[in-house]
Amino acid sequence: MPELSEDERSSRLKALNSLIDLMRPAVQADGGDLVLVRADVETGVVEVQLQGACSSCAISSDTLQGGVTRILTDRLSWVTEVLGGVDDEIDPEDSMSLGVGGYVPRYRAL
């Protein structure tokens, strides 16, 4: 595999950060957060972490696999693997108090 130019590295990292920033509000709406831990733009390995209320959420692994991983690999062809976990340093009681429950879209009558 040929080495990437600085421009390509920068472009990949910028696209990755933009996509993470696009996903963060959905996670933050439930009291959590999505943080990019590290990214190897050469090999395509990306590591993310769910924080806040995600630490006590029963579906955080689904969020990582079905949401974050799927979106990153679908939209960024160079991403080969997404590693992820939750911030287990937060106290479970504190984590639960941050959550606001599942997202329910609000529809306005036209």
Describe the structure.
The protein is α+β, with helices and mostly antiparallel strands. It has a single domain, classed as Fe-S cluster assembly (FSCA) (GMP Synthetase, Chain A, domain 3). 42% of the residues lie in helices and 21% in strands. The protein contains three helices and three strands, in the order αββαβα. It has a three-stranded mixed β-sheet with strand order 1-2-3. About 7% of the residues have low confidence.
Quote the CATH topology: GMP Synthetase, Chain A, domain 3
Strand order of the largest sheet: 1-2-3
Task: Tell me the structural class.
Answer: alpha+beta
Count of individual domains: 1
A few lines on this structure:
The protein has 110 residues and is an alpha+beta fold.
Question: Which key features would you list for this structure?
Answer:
110 residues, alpha+beta, GMP Synthetase, Chain A, domain 3, 3 helices, 21% strand
List the SSEs and their pairings.
Elements: H1 6-28, E1 32-40, E2 45-52, H2 60-75, E3 81-86, H3 92-98
Parallel strand pairs: 2-3
Antiparallel strand pairs: 1-2
